[in-house]
Amino acid sequence: MKELSQEEWREQVEKDGNAVILDVRTKEEVDEGYIPEAKNLDIYKGREFVEEIEKLDKSKNYYVYCRSGARSAQACTLMDQMGFNKTFNLIGGFSQWQGPKSE
Fold this sequence. Notes:
The chain is built from four helices and five strands; from the N terminus they run E-H-E-H-E-H-E-H-E. By secondary structure, the protein is an alpha/beta fold.
């Protein structure tokens, strides 16, 4: 896992043709807004979350975020342990996001 600042995240995602944006917040949080093109997998769903992560393509680059950066760091660590090559955590999470948003 690599920790990325808000600016590093935006720049890297724009240039990365192999990027997948992963939102690990709850559905209620996502309903309040999200980063465009993000795939939502709620980390609080435990085993179901792990099962969904197992279905993902390990060769992709995963840009993971939550509300503040703590849950996404946990998700990145878990994904690294599961054999994912490149995971990136958004420092400060969605609460500090200044980029494009969808609602």
